[in-house]
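The protein record passed on below.

***
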Amino acid sequence: HVQLVESGGGSVQAGGSLRLSCVASRSLYSGACVGWLRQAPEKEREGVAAIDNYGRTSYADSVKGRFTISQDNAKNTVYLQMNSLKPEDTAMYYCAAETPAPYWCSSLEEVYEYNYWGQGTQVTVS
């Protein structure tokens, strides 16, 4: 079993930046997929970014060029650097992991099927 703990959310002005962190209780080992997802009130959950064990990344069109997902395997941590934030980025952000890596890791279409989930961290942009 893997536990994920998220941090780094908060309130920022439009155009500002935040870095979210997701720390796993143990190594996810090879073949894992880690994603960041978000959900705003009365909105559908959407995939934001994902990274696999080879460091290959994917991004939603709405955040491409502004957000960067990265990992520090020595710290069992995945980050989401968010720059040029917009009010429409306001949401609860979750990290999630699936191991072994599923075929859908890079698609960002599967938003409920990850094996492990963090508790969520709120991001508010005004």
